[in-house]
Amino acid sequence: MHHILDPELAAVAATLPTADLSDLAAAREAERLVSEYLPVHEPQTPVSVQDVAVPGPSGAGDVRVRVYAPAERSGTLPGLLYLHGGGYVMGSPALIDSPARMLAERAGVIVVAVDYRLAPEHPFPAGLEDSYAALVWAADQGGEHGIDADRLGVLGESAGGGLAAALTMLTRERGGPRLLAQFLDAPTVDDRLNTPSMRTLRDTPVWQSANSPIAWGHYLRGTAEPGAADVPVHAAVARARVEELAGLPPALVVAYQIDPTRDEALDYARQLIQAGVPTDLRHYGKAFHVAHFIPGTAMGSRMIDDRIEAVRRMLEA
User: Which UniProt keywords are present, listed alphabetically (predicted)?
Assistant: First the structure.
């Protein structure tokens, strides 16, 4: 199938490596190398970066987080939990270092990037529980880093978007920290893999549909078979009934036209809207999965500007 990409993005797409989760070790190494070569955002105003070990789920040890904060702040600032992508099986805070610095600088928030555990070594619900532990820490002890516990949000990309969406449900059910907003960027939320975009968009940059069943198989290992009726809603929030979504925090959902995960993002935004959740939806035509990671393109810059504006507005930064 021929994909009409933005010319700047198309030029970059030709140089991007193809992920192949059938060889997970090689895919992780390729992702690590990409992380090392991504340009580092140099803030015009200083941003402090600190690694912190926070109490993890019972019996699981500490969770490592990386805290990005405007160095010249006065008073407290909103806190934004940031969950990286990687199909639930790859990634680390290093992958999102530049966008985290940019959010701290331009949105005026304190970013907490979570190094959650990955499948298949640590399948569902390990990554979600790590994310919840980090959120509880941000609310209870983040004040030492300048976080305002009354102004918390969560942002996730790809698989991190799936975790972020599930986290809003989990923290509500547990009576955990109140979240003001959820930012779901190309969220991976549906293990059934039967949307039109997943079926028809095959040879796409960054993320290929052939990887999705592998990723879901690793994430759900020991819990359920992907596509089965007993997959928990906290693992794949697209399975939630509309009434289960009522009362969740306001959302920004982002989707990309040339992306196998496009339709599950659009469908989940519709579910949130039907549930009465205030929801903004951004669909970027002629763009591939999380294309804002590509520096130096006009479309990527527009995506970043849109994100910064939404974070500032929805967290009242």
Answer: Hydrolase
In the structure encoding, which two tokens stand for residue 117, read together?
A: 């555990």
- Could you give the strand order of the β-sheet that contains 181-185, starting from the edge strand earlier in sequence? 47-54, 63-70, 110-115, 77-83, 147-157, 181-185, 251-258, 279-288
For residue range 215-261, what is the model confidence (pLDDT) as tens digits? 999 999 999 999 999 999 999 999 999 999 999 999 999 999 999 99
- Check: CB of residue 146 under 8 Å from CB of residue 76: yes
Residue 73 pLDDT more than 50? yes
Name the β-bridge partners of 152.
Answer: 79
Question: Within its chain, how far is the Cα of 137 from the centroid?
Answer: 19
Which segments of the chain does DSSP mark as H helices, in order? 7-13, 24-37, 97-102, 126-140, 159-173, 196-200, 211-219, 242-245, 262-274, 298-314
Is 7-314 assigned to CATH 3.40.50.1820? Answer: yes
Structure tokens at 18: 């193809």
- 68 in Cβ contact with 75 (< 8 Å): no
Q: Known catalytic residues?
A: 158, 259, 289
Statement: residue 1 has pLDDT above 50: no
Domain ranges of the chain: 7-314
Asked whether the CA dihedral 161, 165, 167, 168 is positive or negative, the reply is: positive
Contacts of 103 (CB under 8 A, 6+ apart): 68, 80, 82, 109, 111, 155, 307, 308, 311
Q: Is the pTM of this model over 0.85?
A: yes
Whether the Cβ atoms of residue 227 and residue 147 lie closer than 8 Å to each other: no
Cα(161)–Cα(167) distance, rounded to whole angstroms? 10
**Structure confidence at residue 270 as a pLDDT band (50, 70, 90):** very high
Q: Residue 142: which residues within 8 A CB-CB, separation 6 or more?
A: 79, 110, 112, 149
Average pLDDT on 54-63 reads 93
Cα separation, 135 vs 118, in Å, equals 18
